[in-house]
Amino acid sequence: MVAILVVTVLAALLSLINIGNSAAFNGTISLVLEGFYLSYLLAIGLLLWRRVRGDLDSQNAELAIFSSSPHHDDTYDRSLTWGPWRLKGSLGVANNAVAICYLLLIIFFSFWPTQVNPTPEMMNWAVVVTGGVAMFSALYYIVFARKSYTGPIVEVDPHQM
Fold first, then answer.
1. DSSP state of 64
2. Which of 34, 105, 160, 161 is the most buried (most CB within 10 A)?
């Protein structure tokens, strides 16, 4: 209940930006959409990479996410557990390729301003902020995080599934 209330209040406060400055509101919305598009692009790109390598359409693609071999070292297998619906083979590859092309087109054009010859207030600053965050994140990882990052903690025992 607290999480729902916090998200609702923050969304309501964020919408109040539109009352004060519509350019700031449009910039905020543009940043959120870019984040969504880039996350979708990353996920679909990795899925396409696995499809092209042939990792997903093999006989073992329906296996559970953990190996049941006795010499298992608690690491994930390379297989992917599918849900109830999927496109197999070349249709799945084509679907992912079209989705990537569409997302690249949408991402490219959504970084542009909404009007010709915009003033600095009407400029779409999402490309600057997104690029800055990406560069800061990469630099932070290279300088600090790669020395201490160990990955997520797996809290599920694969042998008890």
1. -
2. 34
Q: What is the Cα–Cα distance from 55 to 50, expressed in whole angstroms? A: 5
- Cα angle 130, 153, 2 (rounded to 5 degrees) comes to 65
CA dist., res. 130 & res. 88, Å (int): 34
CA–CA distance from 80 to each of 57, 61, 74 (Å)? 10, 6, 16
Q: What's the whole-model pTM score?
A: 0.69
- Confirm if 31 and 107 have CB atoms less than 8 A apart: no
Q: Are 89 and 57 in contact (CB under 8 A)?
A: yes
CA distance 114 to 124: 8
At 68, give phi and psi (nearest 5°): -105, 15
Q: How far apart are CA 143 and CA 137, in angstroms?
A: 10
How far is residue 118's CA from residue 89's CA, in Å, rounded to a whole number? 46
For the chain, 161 residues long, the average pLDDT of each consecutive 10-residue run is 94 85 81 92 93 70 45 51 79 95 94 87 87 94 90 66 54
Which structure tokens are listed for 129? 């902020």
> How far is the first Cα of the chain from the last one, in angstroms, to the nearest whole number?
30
Handedness of CA 64, 69, 75, 79 (dihedral sign): negative
